[in-house]
Amino acid sequence: MKLMKCVTMLLLGSVSLMILTAFSCNSGTTSNFTVHIEDVVLLNDGSTVQLGGVQGVAVSGHFIADLGSPVGSTTSFFAGTDSSGNILVFSARIPAQWEIDWGDPRCANQVIDVVNINPGDFISYPCVDVQAAPFSATPNPVNETNLLPMTLQGSGLDPTFGMPEVDFYNLNYAQKSASSEAAC
Predict the structure, then answer these.
(1) What is the tens place of the pLDDT at every residue in 100-121?
(2) What are the tens digits of pLDDT across the range 119-176?
(3) Judgement on whether residues 52 and 88 belong to the same structural domain of the protein
(4) pLDDT tens, 4-63?
(5) In this structure, how many other beta carbons lie within 10 angstroms of the beta carbon of residue 142?
């Protein structure tokens, strides 16, 4: 009887170990990826300043083709970026080729991109700020520690959705230093 009990316990232990092993085989494999939209200002000299993620950009993605042994089952998504400019796509069918589409009226560019995505990838796209028609500012440059009244002259400024706002950035840190709403 004791022998039978020992054999039964040994068999139960072996079966339990096989079940645990089967469920833990892919525990290190993730089938998530992130799409990021970054706010970028294009300066007159052609250089750029990155200001952080853009919230609320509508992004869609569609699976096209496998690139190996896929994990995950999600084959499409449509979502808005979070406060950091990110969309985390859970349980995506990857590694695979996907089409990523996005556009936003705050950005001068619209993207339709076909990209190869692997587990854990971070795919970043720039949102190039829409600039008003050429204008001049006085004073120029601006001393952030001693802000004086400023005059903007030019065309293309439109108060349809509110008065234009001027933001001042410290270009060494890409950090907003001050902001002002235009007055008539």
Answers:
(1) 999 888 787 788 899 999 999 9
(2) 999 999 998 875 545 667 787 777 767 777 877 776 666 677 677 676 666 655 555 5
(3) yes
(4) 554 344 434 443 434 333 333 444 557 899 999 998 877 766 777 788 898 999 999 999
(5) 16
Task: Identify the burial level of 162 via C-beta atoms within 10 angstroms of its C-beta, where 0-12 means exposed, 13-18 middle and 19 or more buried.
Answer: exposed
Neighbours of 115 (CB within 10 A): 16
CATH code, domain with 119: 2.60.40
Q: Are residues 39 and 116 in the same domain?
A: yes
Whether 165 and 91 map to the same domain: the answer is: no
- The answer to whether residues 104 and 146 belong to one domain is no
- Asked whether 60 and 81 are in contact (CB, 8 A), the reply is no
- What is the rounded CA–CA span in Å between residue 22 and residue 59? 36
Tell me if the pTM is above 0.70: no
Q: Which domain holds residue 43?
A: 33-128
Task: Note whether 161 and 82 are same-domain residues.
Answer: no
Give the number of other CB atoms < 10 A from CB of residue 87. Answer: 23
157 lies in some domain:
yes
Kindly report whether the peptide bond that precedes residue 159 is cis, defined as omega within 30 degrees of 0.
no
Q: Look at residue 3 and tell me if it is in a domain.
A: no
Q: Tokens representing 179?
A: 């902001």
Phi, psi of 57 (to 5 degrees): -85, 130
Same-domain check for residues 59 and 118: yes
Residue in the block written with tokens 């092993």: 21
